[in-house]
Design a protein that fits this description.
264 residues; alpha/beta; TIM Barrel; two-stranded antiparallel ribbon; 10 strands; binds ribulose-5-phosphate
């Protein structure tokens, strides 16, 4: 791997722990003004300093993130569908690698839809993006998007993650599932998990994060479970404690409750 590629990866997968906390704020690219992300600037402002990387689209990056901020950017570069359509898999690349370089990003991200109608199109997009990324030293993160008919089980998610890595993805983002270690063991590149829909309690989020990092994930690329929380800053700081210190879920909950109690 080229020096530039390794340097960019190490900007967000931290050398001291080998782990990463990415904050996903790209949801608007097909969901529009998602709850508590209606005003991305407001949502991002108190959280960005606690994240190892931020994952926005180019529109949110340009309009809602101060360019003087040094947090690495993992830029969402796929899209082309909206939640109003039945089939979300009809995605293409929406932002060129040249533009990503101009915005000084640390990686680019796209979704692949294994098993969906447009599987091939999204896998070819991944392959082409990797080839361009290799030319410029920009890592590619592949999100294993789950179509409406797909089970979020290890059989499906390990298949999609492995295919992403075989086509050259440098990082894979997927979902936590039972037998998760089978997925991480069969995927030769770093794996991060999405949080998915907001879980019922903070402890549920801490348990999922702990289980993921102790079963081989290098961290999380989490959105709704952080910024849809009533206590987003306490939430991101507590998830961070698990990701970088392997704090147990109960320790993270104590930390979370202390942070909440200390608030004015
Ligand atoms: C959509 C995405 C989102 O960024 C991803 O789902 C992460 O956010 P959340 O933790 O809210 O699920 O990649 O395809």
């Amino acid at each position: 791997m080229d020096w530039g590629m390794r340097n960019r990866l190490s900007r967000f997968i931290k050398a001291d722990t080998g782990r990463c906390l990415m904050l996903a704020v790209d949801h608007g690219y097909f969901l529009g003004p998602t709850r508590k992300l209606e005003n991305p600037k407001k949502t991002i402002a108190p959280l960005i300093e606690h994240a190892d990387a931020l994952m926005p689209t180019r529109g949110v990056l340009r309009n809602c993130v101060d360019p003087a901020h040094n947090t690495p950017i993992v830029l969402r570069v796929s899209g082309g569908t909206s939640v109003l359509k039945e089939d979300l898999s009809d995605e293409a690349i929406t932002t060129t690698m040249e533009e990503a370089v101009r915005m000084n990003v640390s990686a680019v991200a796209l979704s692949i839809f294994v098993g969906s109608e447009h599987e091939k199109q999204t896998l070819i997009s991944l392959s082409k993006l990797v080839s361009e990324g290799e030319r410029y030293g920009i890592p590619v993160l592949a999100v294993t998007a789950v179509g409406k008919d797909m089970a979020r089980d290890v059989r499906y998610l390990a298949l999609a993650s492995r295919i992403a890595s075989e086509l050259g993805a440098h990082v894979v983002k997927t979902y936590y599932c039972d037998d998760f270690e089978k997925l991480t063991e069969s995927c030769p590149v770093p794996v991060v998990i999405a949080g998915g829909k907001a879980l019922e309690t903070p402890l549920d989020v801490f348990e999922m994060t702990y289980n993921a990092v102790t079963r081989g994930a290098v961290g999380v690329d989490m959105g709704r479970n952080i910024w849809q929380s009533d206590q987003p800053v306490a939430m991101i700081r507590s998830v961070r404690k698990i990701v970088h210190e392997t704090a147990k879920p109960e320790e993270a909950l104590d930390f979370f409750e202390t942070l909440v109690a200390e608030q004015p």
